[in-house]
Amino acid sequence: MMKQLMELREQLGWQGSAGLFLLALTVAFQMLALNPLEQETAYIHQKVDTARSKSTRPDLNFSSIDHQKELGNLFDSLPGEENVTDILAMIYSVAEASKIEIKQAEYQLDDKSKQSMEYRIVFPVQGEYANIRFFVFRVLSDHPAIALDQINFKRDKVNDSLLKAEIKFSLFLKPSN
User: Fold this and answer.
1) Strands 101-102 and 117-127
2) What is the pTM of this model?
3) Rg of the Cα trace of the chain?
């Protein structure tokens, strides 16, 4: 087999070898960079279409002057405490779909307000930058009661493709009565 490769290299010359190398480089770029971006673009288009269809509903009134009522509606729209496990399961499934590795997580409940509770979630994750960005985008767009507090990136070596990131989310909940 090695002999056949050497013969092929001699037949192609340096121009043919360079062309094959560029072709292989193009395929690798397509798979590693463009495919995740195309998936993210398709998902964004789907979310935009969904948002547009919801915004044409006649029962929505954005011109209300009663801000206390709007704030009350916001608190009423928050998920309840009993939904935490479902929301966390959704986050883990999004991580798996985004090819993000979550080995552990930290959870802290902060219930200073009577109207809402804040559930702080810290995920140390590992993956490629595009996958981490897609994971964060999906979590935030899939659940409006989740906010991104902080994200830190770390790379062990300059040429490593994998990043280590610490992602801090806040999940806002309605306390159970």
Assistant:
1) antiparallel
2) 0.58
3) 24
Residue 95 and residue 166 in one domain: yes
Specify the DSSP element, H or E, that contains 37.
helix 35-55
Express each pLDDT in 161-177 by its tens digit: 888 999 999 988 887 76
- 143 and 100, same structural domain? yes
Q: Are 152 and 136 in contact (CB under 8 A)?
A: no
Split into its structural domains, the chain has a count of 2
Same domain, yes or no, for 95 and 143? Answer: yes
Amino acid in the structure at residue 106: E
- pLDDT, tens digit, for every residue of 74-85? 777 788 888 888
Tokens of 81: 């405490």
In the chain, DSSP assigns E strands to 101-102, 106-110, 117-127, 146-154, 163-173
Residue 56 lies in a domain: no
